[in-house]
Write a structure and sequence with these properties.
Blueprint (H helix, E strand, L loop, with lengths): L23 H8 L23 E4 L1 H4 L5 H5 L2 H7 L3 E4 L11 E3 L2 E2 L6 H5 L21 H13 L3 E6 L3 E3 L4 H4 L16 H6 L1 H10 L15 E3 L5 H18 L3 E4 L7 H14 L3 E4 L7 H4 L3 E3 L1 H11 L5 H14 L5 E4 L4 H7 L2 H5 L3 H10 L3 E5 L24 H15 L11 E5 L7 E8 L2 E8 L5 E3 L9 E4 L5 E2 L5 E3 L4 E7 L1
Parallel strand pairs: 1-2, 1-12, 2-5, 5-8, 8-9, 10-11, 11-12
Antiparallel strand pairs: 3-4, 6-7, 13-14, 14-15, 15-20, 16-19, 17-18, 17-20
Length: 508
């Protein structure tokens, strides 16, 4: 699902929710979000196994030619060999058929050729049953085998779930209409041209009196119906679903879609109930709602970092913007809060382009930074083979697996993170200090230190060559290349090529 995301501002953020005037009362009653002061005082206790974890997002539909649980399960040993710790499975639940999308602004039912219509499988996030699996992927026992195989390999599994909304043919729409946000369809800010193009849809939801999600401004999520969190029974039913997968299948947590559009007190209740079953790991798709990180979630998205890296790669910004970001995050976040660092994911790949399209020759240096800056690095399906196409979102578009040097590249980065506590997550990891090289204006550099684990990361964020000289503070320090182990002379200039980098291990 293509999301509009919001950025943090310095200091205290007052959370403003912008709604069209005709829906303000309904949505203000639903939101009930509180302003939170920074730095956030997190009370979340991270599971021990997350301390040096790398997360891998699995797109079951596209990951293999078969697009099934069984086919993906055969890939687990390869990911184990790379050192992946957490498997985040994109939604595995049944997908709605009513108002199913074929493209962003086209419904499958509007395609009259049956064979062509059958190609369109809809959005992963239009869920019509929270207590079952998508039959396209296999059976519930196939899913159980996937989880058990991952656990046997020393890995953990989190499920992607969207509870801000459901598919239009979720049974609740007719059986429990009070679970949804009701509003006069005549009051919804329709695009007149769109209304004219989709009269059946307009007539259908006008009759139901239920709206699609418009929590923080108009969206194009017409294939989903908006849930109303003022309803206490809805909350109980959703918590039951969250508990089900942990109790019955031993999953290890959740990635929660548009978590910031759901009230924080709901998420707090979810976390309490899940932790009664087993300690879990929770990832919020959000970067704006600070209250999510106080009691409910271990980690949110570093969207701003992602966009800064893209803009530097495209020559629109420079290292100073990255430095400012690092200083801001240091002032806003409790050091123990995890941020998820990434250069791609399912949204970025499908809607904004491949890594190569967005970052070009800068791809490797920013991948490296996603592993060495504070935060947990993400890999997306196929990233380790240099996925070179935008995967279609609403239909099957399987990736073709091939040998690639990217696998060894990411394996080395995972090993670097796992073996050295300076690069671990949150308070498990080391402090970060920006380092300035006045004679090298394109160099972004920093130290990470955790006890005896000490590293200097140097990145040339430019397509030009750069030379730099280490300061006197490194004169009596033994320097070694973090990957090769070769000694580096601290008195000799370091030459970096275009978008090049060095990671140096510091030893007394």
């Amino acid at each position: 699902m293509k999301h509009t995301l919001y950025y943090f501002r310095m200091g205290v953020i007052i959370l403003l929710i912008a709604f069209v005037s005709c829906t303000s009362t309904v949505q203000e009653d639903k939101a009930k979000k509180a302003a939170v002061s920074y730095p956030i005082d997190s009370q979340v206790k991270h599971v021990e196994w997350s301390k040096d974890a790398v997360i891998y997002e699995v797109n079951i539909r596209q990951h293999t030619e078969e697009g099934t649980f069984q086919a993906f399960t055969s890939h687990i040993p390869r990911l184990q060999e790379m050192g992946v710790d957490i498997l985040w499975l994109m939604p595995v639940f049944p997908i709605g058929e009513l108002n199913r999308k074929a493209k962003q602004s086209v419904f499958a039912e509007e395609i009259k050729d049956p064979a062509e219509q059958a190609k369109y499988l809809g959005s992963y996030y239009a869920i019509k049953d929270y207590m079952d699996v998508n039959p396209e992927y296999g059976t519930i026992e196939d899913f159980r085998e996937l989880v058990e195989t991952a656990h046997a390999a020393g890995m953990h599994v989190i499920l992607d779930i969207a509870v801000n909304h459901t598919a239009w043919d979720h049974p609740w729409v007719t059986e429990k209409p009070e679970y949804y946000t009701h509003i006069s369809a005549d009051s919804i800010p329709w695009n007149p041209d769109w209304m004219e193009a989709h009269p059946e849809y307009y007539s259908r939801i006008r009759e139901l009196g239920i709206t699609y999600p418009i929590d923080q401004g108009e969206t194009d999520w017409w294939d989903t119906a908006d849930l109303n969190f003022d309803n206490a029974e809805l909350r109980k039913e959703l918590i039951k679903a969250f508990n089900y997968w942990v109790r019955e299948f031993d999953i290890d947590g959740y990635r929660c879609d548009v978590a910031g559009w759901v009230p924080c007190d709901f998420w707090n209740a979810v976390r309490i109930e899940l932790d009664k079953v087993k300690p879990v790991f929770m990832l919020a798709e959000d970067e704006a709602e600070a209250c999510l990180l106080e009691k409910a979630f271990d980690m949110n998205y570093a969207w701003e970092l992602h966009h800064i890296m893209n803009r530097i790669a495209q020559g629109k910004e420079d290292k100073t913007h990255l430095e400012a970001y690092c200083q801001k995050v240091d002032s806003l976040y409790d050091p123990d809060i995890y941020r998820m660092n990434f250069i791609t994911n399912h949204d970025e790949n499908s809607w904004n382009g491949t890594i190569a399209e967005r970052m070009g020759d800068a791809s490797k240096v920013f991948a490296m930074l996603s592993f060495t800056l504070p935060g947990m690095p993400l890999l997306y399906s196929g990233q380790e083979m240099g996925l070179s196409k935008r995967l279609k979102f609403f239909e099957r578009d399987p990736m073709v697996w091939k040998d690639s040097p990217w696998k060894a590249f990411y394996t080395d980065l995972i090993k670097l993170k796992s073996d050295n506590s300076a690069f671990w997550n949150g308070d498990f990891g080391g402090t970060m200090k920006l380092i300035d090289f006045p004679d090298a204006e394109t160099i972004f550099a920093f130290q990470r230190v955790k006890g005896a684990s000490r590293f200097l990361v140097i990145a040339n964020l430019s397509e030009d060559y750069s030379n730099l000289t280490l300061s006197e503070e490194y004169a009596n320090t033994s320097l070694k290349d973090a990957f090769s182990g070769h000694a580096v002379n601290s008195h000799e200039p370091i030459m970096l090529g275009a978008w090049d980098y060095k990671i140096l291990k510091l030893e007394e």
